[in-house]
Amino acid sequence: MMRSTPSLLYTIAMLSLLAGPLAGKAQDVKMRVPIISLGRIRTSEIKDGKPIPTVTTRQNVLKYPLLTADLNNCRVTDYKFSLIAPGRPFYGPIYVLGGDVTDSIKTVIKRIDGPGVKLYFEDIHMLYRGDTMDANPVYVQYDE
Fold first, then answer.
1. Which DSSP string do the residues of 86-137 spell out, in sequence order?
2. Domain that residue 47 falls in
3. What does pTM read for this prediction?
């Protein structure tokens, strides 16, 4: 049988006293805002305070047509889509429920060739841990 020493009892008592305040502090930590991307296309970069569209291919845009978050249990609930193509009229904004790129948007993307076609996914809302949150916009450009 092992005997308790005063120093061991003192250590256990101190740890249990410290654990209470530390457990309360864990709830004060703000959760990280999830980052949204289009399929496997990385998110837009910010330069001089302005977003720069991520350059990709039309094939990549259509391959994974879903706005996804980089955290589990987070999903896009709605967003606004617009498209700008050189020499063509402005397309949008179209409000979409859910995170999928709709069939009508995919049809427009298939019909418009590049270069310089810019896709804007803005006013993105997501559901994360029971809370509705705003998400970062996603800007994509394809050149073919």
1. TTS--EEEEEEESSBPPHHHHHHHHH---SSEEEEEEEEEEEETTEEEE---
2. 36-142
3. 0.73
